[in-house]
């Protein structure tokens, strides 16, 4: 699968609360920008959890896929959740992949991190653009989750605030372009792009984010998963 996406965020919250918001599909789909719907399928006790997911790109255009996940929470301060996923949809930018979430309790909070790789669905050339975007979406979602746990701001409210802030920046830039001298307009546009978001607005830049070719961490690789067969 080549290189992997790695994102890490420090969340000052209870590890059990973080586990709940990430393992409950109804809560997960609220904060994760990468998914529109996540549904768990029936399973027997002790078996890995199969799920279906959907991403709505446009009205009437929905990409679907399936996956399987298994969580290890035996260590109260160091937990892992591994998954495999795949999509047979012809427009899916991801054909198949695997990865993990890891939850590490520290004195400053919980290190919540993910590492995943995938086989591109649109070819390597398109993936040169898509991979940074999916990495950004992962980091933005992690910070959205952090705000929910640390401040109580719901994911829906965070999204509206982010959209409002983008609109204000675009409006200020457009006004400066129309009314101000060119040098001033360029300065305003640069500030609109470079100034960090407000503290209460989700921001991918607050997370550690990189593309890596390192092998999985030994602990994360222990999570048992069957081979994925798209259902």
Please, could you describe this protein's structure?
This protein is of the alpha+beta class and 231 residues long. Helices cover 35% and strands 32% of the residues. It is built from 5 helices and 8 strands, in the order βααββββββαααβ. It has helices spanning 15-23, 25-31, 124-151, 155-179, 182-194; strands spanning 4-11, 37-40, 49-58, 61-72, 78-86, 94-106, 109-120, 208-212. The chain has an 8-stranded antiparallel beta sheet. A hairpin with a 2-residue loop joins strand 6 and strand 7 (109-120). The radius of gyration is 19 Å and the shape is globular. The two termini are 22 Å apart. Mean pLDDT is 89; it is low at 221-226.
Describe the structure concisely for a colleague.
The protein is α+β, with helices and mostly antiparallel strands and about 230 residues long.
**Discrete helix count:** 5
Average pLDDT, all residues: 89
- Basic shape: globular
The total beta strand count reads 8
For the largest sheet, list the strands in their spatial order.
Answer: 2-3-4-5-6-7-1-8
Low-confidence stretches: 221-226
| Strand-residue proportion | 25-35%
Succession of helices and strands: EHHEEEEEEHHHE
Which structural class do you get from the secondary structure elements? alpha+beta
> How far apart are the termini?
22 Å
**Rg from Cα:** 19 Å
Helix-residue proportion: 25-40%
Major sheet attributes? 8 strands, antiparallel
């Amino acid at each position: 699968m080549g290189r992997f996406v790695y994102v890490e965020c420090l969340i000052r919250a209870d590890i059990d609360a973080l586990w709940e918001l990430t393992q409950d599909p109804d809560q997960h789909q609220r904060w994760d920008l990468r998914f529109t719907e996540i549904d768990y399928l029936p399973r027997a006790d002790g078996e890995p959890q199969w799920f279906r997911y959907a991403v709505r790109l446009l009205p009437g255009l929905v990409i679907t896929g399936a996956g399987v996940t298994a969580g290890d929470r035996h260590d109260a301060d160091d937990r892992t959740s591994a998954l495999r996923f795949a999509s047979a949809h012809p427009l899916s930018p991801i054909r198949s992949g695997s990865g993990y979430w890891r939850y590490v309790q520290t004195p400053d909070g919980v290190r919540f991190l993910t590492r995943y790789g995938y086989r591109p669905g649109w070819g390597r050339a398109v993936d040169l653009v898509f991979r940074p975007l999916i990495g950004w979406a992962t980091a933005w979602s992690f910070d959205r989750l952090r705000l929910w746990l640390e401040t109580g701001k719901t994911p829906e409210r965070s999204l509206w605030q982010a959209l409002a802030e983008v609109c204000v920046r675009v409006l200020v830039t457009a006004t400066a372009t129309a009314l101000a001298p060119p040098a001033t307009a360029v300065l305003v546009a640069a500030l609109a792009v470079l100034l960090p978001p407000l503290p209460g607005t989700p921001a991918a830049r607050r997370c550690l984010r990189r593309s890596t070719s390192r092998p999985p961490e030994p602990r994360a690789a222990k999570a048992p998963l069957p081979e994925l067969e798209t259902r």
